[in-house]
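How a chain folds remains the central question behind the approach discussed here. This step matters because it turns folding into a mapping between discrete strings. The sequence in question and its structure tokens are set out directly beneath this paragraph.
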Amino acid sequence: MRIIAGARRGMKLLIPDTRETRPITDRVKESLFMILQNYDLLAGARAADLFCGVGSLGLEAISRGAASVTFVEKSQEIADALEKNIAKAAFERQSRVVRASAFRVGAPLGPGGERYDLVFVDPPYAMTKEVGPGSALADLLQILQNQVVPRGVVVVRTERANRPLDQYGTFHAADRRDWGTMSVVLLQAAGS
């Protein structure tokens, strides 16, 4: 796994020897980031990478011009690898690591209380078997409604068989793509 484009193009990411991570393939990541660039969602963005693993999506976002990323990861072992990847990329000033369950904290606001322009939600597939009302995903999106700017975007990756709904509270599906066994939906917050 590597950073594909931008300031740290080609940098290989450190990955711990564990079954806890579910990396996104380079091909899918490249396609996703082309979509995000087409929507002009990267340059200067305040982003969050939930269930971030070793930081593949968030580090890619910084490499391509995001102003900052808050990484949320529960596992100590994986968060240690994430911090090494952040240091290797020299992205410490643009990064903040929160060790917590994203289902509980969402995308924690920074010291200045700024909301996020872009949030990646990439939980383990087992945690998104249910995506309807009352599901863990629906509850997380309810938390994110207060953490995302108006018209901000939440990118949700699930198993293709469990595609997210078209509407969660103030979020609506702006774009939807399927690659192999995975589904990615861009949920956009209502405007102000």
